[in-house]
Sequence to fold (120 residues):
Amino acid sequence: AGPSELALVITDDDGIRSLNRDFLGYDTPTDVLAFPALEDGGPFVAAPEAGGYLGDVIVSYPRAVAQAQERGHSPQQELNLLVVHGILHLLGYDHADDEGKVTMWARQDAILDSLPRAVE
Fold:
């Protein structure tokens, strides 16, 4: 595959709540949202080597900080987790069922384990 791009937006709880409400119908803040550029089954399918624009990942910074405290690690580690989680959603991973959750979490853990410690 060719090079790929995405948009990463760091916002607050009000910003992510608005997006969650307007696009997904949930009037509540969340930690991360992902909006793929092309949904599966759409009329346009990129060639495997094309790369291109993956979509948008939106993270609530206040929620990331709060979750980091709850989980006993740094805000940077939580941001890493949320960004990787969002990118996996852009790539088609999902955790709606147990099988998908196991697959997605394993991939997520492998990616996080491969990050240089300086990133944390």
Summary: The helical segments are 13-24, 61-71, 75-90, 98-114. Residues 98-114 form the longest helix (17 residues).
